[in-house]
Design brief:
The structure is a homodimer. Chain A has 3 domains: 40 residues, no CATH class; 120 residues, 3-Layer(aba) Sandwich (Rossmann fold), CATH 3.40.50.2300; 143 residues, Response regulator (Rossmann fold, 3-Layer(aba) Sandwich), CATH 3.40.50.2300. Chain A has 12 helices and 12 strands. In chain A, helix 1 crosses helix 2, helix 5 packs across helix 12 and helix 8 packs across helix 9. Chain A binds a DNA duplex through helix 2 and helix 4.
Chain lengths: 339, 339
Amino acid sequence: MATGPMATVRDVAAMARVSISTVSRALSAPDMVNEVTRQRVIDAARELDYRPNPAARGLRVGKTNNLGLLIPDLENPFFASVTKGVQSRARAAGYAVFVADSDEDPAQEIELIGNLATQVDGIILASPRAPSQDILDATAGKTVVMLNREVGDIPSITIDNADGVLQAVSHLRALGHRTIAYASGPVHSWSGEERRKGMVAVAEQFPDLTVVQLGNFRPYFSGGYPAADIAVASSATAVIAYNDLMALGIIDRLRQRGISVPDDMSVVGFDDVPVASLVSPALTTIQIPLAGLGRRGVDLLVERLEGAVDVTTRSEVPVELIIRNSTSVPAASPAASTP
Amino acid sequence: MATGPMATVRDVAAMARVSISTVSRALSAPDMVNEVTRQRVIDAARELDYRPNPAARGLRVGKTNNLGLLIPDLENPFFASVTKGVQSRARAAGYAVFVADSDEDPAQEIELIGNLATQVDGIILASPRAPSQDILDATAGKTVVMLNREVGDIPSITIDNADGVLQAVSHLRALGHRTIAYASGPVHSWSGEERRKGMVAVAEQFPDLTVVQLGNFRPYFSGGYPAADIAVASSATAVIAYNDLMALGIIDRLRQRGISVPDDMSVVGFDDVPVASLVSPALTTIQIPLAGLGRRGVDLLVERLEGAVDVTTRSEVPVELIIRNSTSVPAASPAASTP
DNA sequence: ATGAAAGCGCTAACAG
DNA sequence: CTGTTAGCGCTTTCAT
């Protein structure tokens, strides 16, 4: 760093009275060097608090041992959790991670991919917002894995959106709901589209159900307000939101209008971000193992970096319905019998 | 990166038919090179999508242009926001940032400081948990700035905790509260101690007030439960929590026990994390400019890195009371007149 | 088992 | 204005 001049191989070599190559070996190839010499080097290294300069090593070896993580917004608890998972797994695997926040800006994303690429061995793209073609161009020739989205042949880890929607609907249906609303996320959201399609599929699967599409809303708390109003205007007794943040907004708006959740309206979220369990009513939601998603992303990336070329390129993580207090039997439902 | 072999100065030099030093100059020293040659280099560089290898440059120049950020927990919205601020400002200043999450583990912190130090020009320590002496040792000779804590002579940016507490108490007092409880954070928390001391000072300042110290609680949602129970057992009509998360827990526990907030008990948080405005009742809290804290941290660090040695070493950012819906006049207060 | 030397990609003297 | 050269700290042949 700035003040204390870092010790280099040369310093250690001098103190241990060996050549610099012996220092290098003693520290990495445990057994290519005489036991006693090695100890001398180790001691000198410790004494000087010597740490190999990663940049220098990287330059020589052609590998930085750094990973890049690109996310749309750190203040979105979804990505905070994913980042946390990436962080810890990367460290365990011996990588440091550059985190870049694109602020939901597709253009920034593309630029950041280029920046990151100069300093890392591989990049994790979490829910990138940019158009597929732009991503394809920007990542050409780079080692990249994608989280929560699929584009082209880029290795990816996604979540089982269809099953999530199915679980949510099944839950609601079992409670007695027959008209269920769905509040979509942004039009261009990949996972949003997946979930919307899932809703359509589920609707076909249950002929006794009426599924009403409320429209597209911003995937934040604020997006829940218009969604709630439209839901109320519909005949739905339950609403599934694109994500937890939106679900929270829906609940808040409902409360403002004197509509009780879950008594008058059931609400289901998606993601199970940490805050979902801290609000009241606690949110029934589809749990995505967010930190796990991050960890698996690192695993996949590291595999491609160090291992075989043809490892599995796409996988999907399961989701699980977490029933809390924002769902119950519909107000005047015949199925509303509490044993 | 992995597949596409990155172009180097040499490639660009070849294509532009100049020497490598001319390439280097054309790209950094705009006017040390002939206009037309320069353009040839620029073109070649663009053609090859050339990007100087930061590691190589860093090695040569003795500056990485990377910053390290160490935080206790990314899933804590406090740090997510700080990180976001650091991120954006660092990028604007031409730095990439390594983010390291210590998982609230003091030992990890010390180790991570050492790891980070090998790859960065400077480090930002956000609310480190380790003992002062350990931090002093680990950062000796390194360029470091600290956020939300002071130790030794390390340059720091803190917040005006005393004023925050004062604003909270004044607000409550104005509403008519006369017995106010304070739920402290962890014993070893620096800011926790600052706020506790602030409460004591405020208590002395207002002779008509009774301040009851509830004890020390975990600075999370869960810590709010015991705090709430003790608050209820006391005669306080309002409680100020160490932070927003704890305040949320207090409110939740109060609700469980059928105690209405703010009607039966007022609650004030601290930090104004994003979720504070999304819950119901929306939390009255002391707002800390969290992202701003991160940005100022970068500014201070970069100043020390690039500028004079004796820039201001300690500063404090102001806080502001945000009045929302978790506070009101006390239940049976004589001051309870709504005009 | 150890040392000498080359070279990763880059910038900064130092010539010219 | 431009080219040659050295060297940042490290690992890795290649000798010995």
